């Protein structure tokens, strides 16, 4: 597998071996969590026990110090076993990498964040709202924060709060009239007035448990206002999203290959993998996987360069769309067998669709690339 070309560090090898040794129970627990539309608590507990939430935390702060390439590699493998848990915890890993890599918060709050993560904390940015749609579209959030004594009172409703019940902290996006800016507040999940309401009832990524968060007069001290009107720029850590869909595609590919080399109906000699039209499909899957993986990993290796926002967005677009095609081809190879709920391929089919609705959206990526093309001539 060409993924092996990108294995470089001891941390990567350690986690890959750990995943391989535990893959059977991970797959079993993932299936049950999807069936019940709940978080895979068994897997989350195991990941926290081994410090997976510290992957992108700098080594000097007690983490593994993984860069975006290492995170992508491990997330891809985890997603091939349990895509929902990988996507849900990936938001946390990306935020940690972004905050510490960009030195985004005050020294006091960076220390607080470090302490919380080392103690098993998981955080997620909560930005989406039903009224605004995707946060990348620029809608003004209805969630608001107003001054109150030596801090702020937050009120509003947030949607798509992945890992909902297991989050220890919410990084809440609000529009603050006083500052005329989009701001983010660091909110401990146990804060009075913060409540998760179970609304997640979807076809795919069911075990992300991306329920709603209701904020009712949630008070946070002034120091918990961690970001004010931060300029939006290319964020390489968002490539944790396509890594999950690459993992789904790799899993579907493996399902189909295993099926094709073993299935021998009595209407043919040998196995279906030897049939020309099946060989074509296997080759098409392999080519799409290679193309998507090399683009994504190469983009990750360019993160030190400037102005690569379009490249990061293109990586998401290419991987997610190729993943849709790979899963479809895999199911054509497997036929009706791929629809059986006793297997995992039908879950991959349901979950891979979610990638189209993770930011950035396809149309936004194409417009961004069009602008880049026009600017090159100006």
UniProtKB/TrEMBL annotation:
* Superkingdom of this protein's organism: Bacteria
User: Domain Acyl-CoA dehydrogenase/oxidase C-terminal, which positions?
Assistant: 244-354
The cofactors named for this UniProt entry are: FAD
Keyword vocabulary terms for this entry? FAD, Flavoprotein, Oxidoreductase
Keyword Flavoprotein attached: yes
Recorded hits in CDD domains, A to Z, give:
ACAD (cd00567)
Outline the extent of the Acyl-CoA dehydrogenase/oxidase N-terminal domain.
26-98
Every Acyl-CoA oxidase/dehydrogenase middle domain range? 127-218
InterPro entries linked:
Acyl-CoA_Oxase/DH_mid-dom, Acyl-CoA_Oxase/DH_mid-dom_sf, AcylCo_DH-like_C, AcylCo_DH/oxidase_C, AcylCoA_DH/ox_N, AcylCoA_DH/ox_N_sf, AcylCoA_DH/oxidase_NM_dom_sf
As for family, the record states:
Belongs to the acyl-CoA dehydrogenase family.
Protein name, per record: Acyl-CoA dehydrogenase
Question: What organism does this protein naturally occur in?
Answer: Macrococcus equipercicus
List the top taxonomic levels of the source: Bacteria, Bacillati, Bacillota, Bacilli, Bacillales
